[in-house]
Amino acid sequence: MSDQHDGLLAVSGSELQERRERVFLLLAGFFLCAMTLLNVIGITRFVQLGPMQIAVGVLAYPLTFLCTDLISELYGRQRANFMVTVGLILNGFILAIMALANAMPAIDPVSQPPWQTIELANSIGLPDGSVVEQSVELFSLVYACTAGAVVASMIAYIAAQYIDVFLFHKIKQWTGGKHLWLRNNGSTMVSQAVDSFAVISITFGAVFLAGDITISALLVLMASNYVFKLLAALIDTPIIYLLVSRLRPYLGIEKKTA
Length: 258
Description:
- Helix 2 runs antiparallel to helix 3.
- Strand 4 and strand 5 (131-132) form a beta hairpin.
- The protein has helices at residues 2-9, 13-41, 62-75, 77-103, 138-174, 180-203, 205-209, 215-235, 237-251; strands at 46-49, 52-55, 117-119, 124-125, 131-132, 135-137.
- The protein contains 9 helices and 6 strands; from the N terminus they run H-H-E-E-H-H-E-E-E-E-H-H-H-H-H.
């Protein structure tokens, strides 16, 4: 302890502040990147992971909860909520740009590049409940697959991320700052359940009402999303212990109980 304390004394206040801001920027960057990936590639493809059926956009999403918990632990609740709020604003920005692009008229079909329109051999149903018969514009297809997912992720995001931050600090208070594994996994278990239920039910709500997907298929998607995120949370437990143990002395942050 004395060696660490002497080392911190040798580091100027401005250098410590710069370290803290750089680490925060790095964690926030990963958080926002993972969240944006969910919105951009969303449900454009599903992959099979053992018994689980996972949308490719979900693959990086558990990283958001690791980043949130790290910032909560090192920087406090206010910083974590600030990052979540910035993510919410970015969600709105993505949705606004997509809606604007969708509302704007496309160029003349003769001038369109060959990849802009896809000819279909059979009619297909889109996630927004509409059916395309002969051809579809590439952007319209992407918009139909992602716009609903962005709205769903915004609603799920608001609930899940703020719940995660709130529970993380509540558990930290209840345990007197002990048992990092408990607040890391406990907060994530609840928030991921909220996220998985909300994002799947809202994204595929129109498809379900149109009769193009069964309730059992929806439950499989919800369960797959939740189990995947829960396993990711369990796997990242030693990672968060390692990072916290290394970053506390590096950033000159003392352990707090709340």
